[in-house]
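Case study 2.
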Amino acid sequence: MLGASFTFLTPLAALLGLLAVLPLAALAVGSRRADSVRRLLRLPPAPSGVRYRRELSLIGVVALLALAAMQPVIRTHHGTRSRTDAQLFIVLDTSRSMAAAATPTGPTRLARAERIARTLGSQFGDLPVGVATFTDRVLPDLFPTADRAAFDSVVSAVTVEDPPPQNVSTIATTFDTLSSLATNGFFPDSVHKRVVVVLTDGESSPFDPQEVASALANHGVRLKVVRIGNGRDRVWRADGKPEAGYRPDPAGARRDIAELESAIGGSPRQSTAAFVRNAVASGPSAPVGVETRTLTLAPVPAVLALVLLIAIFRPPRTGGRYRLGAGRANERVSA
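Prediction:
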C-alpha cells in the first residue's frame, strides 16, 4: 500500500447539524410545560440528570446523522503491477446461436459466457487479460490489460452478431479462424506465454483441427475451449416461441471440440483456471499504475444514531419500591 487518506465525499452535509436546534427547542418547551404541570399538581421536580441526558442524546443523534450524510471514507492507494511475459485473451463466440437459452426468459448462452469471462478475469491477479469476439473472424475488443474494471466493462458490452459475420451462412462460426490469434498481432513479440480461452457453444462449420493446432503451436499460443449450452437451448422470438430456423447440434459441437482438444493436446478434465495458471506459471512483472480503493464509513455513525434513538425513547424501568408507593397512593385516593 502506497498510502491512505481520510476525507468526506459530501462535506456540505455538515449543515444538517443545524437541525439539532429544532429538537432541542422542542425539548425545552416540553420541559417547561412539564415543570408547570408538576408545580400545579405539587409533584416533585424531575431529576435534572434525566433531562440533560436526553438533551445530549438528541444532540448526539443529529450529529451522527450529519456525520453519516457527509459520507466519510478512507481511501487507500495501492501500486498495480502487470506481468510482462504472459497475456491471456478470452474469446467470446457471438454467432446467432449464442442467443439461445433454455427458456424465453432464461440467460442466453452469451450471457452465461460473459459471466464465466468476468469470473476468470478476476482470478489471475497481475496477468493482463484481453477480450476478443469471433464468428467467421476473430476481432479484438480489448487488448490485454491489468485494468479489471475496463475488462469487465468490455465483456458486459459484447452482444450477439456485433459485428456481424462476414459471410451469410446457417452456421456462421468456424474454428478455422482461431488460427488468426497466432498470426494477426494479438500478442506482442515480447510476450512468450500466450494463452487463449474460447467460450463457445461449439457449433462450427467444417474445419481442419490439425491446421488450427499447428498455427497456434508454431507461435506459442496455448488454447482452451469451454463449451456453453446444450441441446435444450433454443433461440426465442419476442412472442415466446422458438425460431424455426435454428436447431441445436450438441453431438456435432461435442465432436468438433473433442477433435480440436485432441489436436492441441488439451486435457478436457482440467479446469479452465488451472489451465491458465499452469500455462502462465510465474514470471516478471512491472508497475503500471496506482489503484485507489475506497472504504465507506457512513454506515457506522448511522447505526450508532439508530441505537441512540432507541435508547432515548425506550420506556424507563420502574422498580418494586416505585410500584409499591404508587399502590399506597392509590389506596389513599380510594379511601
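The chain has two domains: 3-75+295-334, 85-283.
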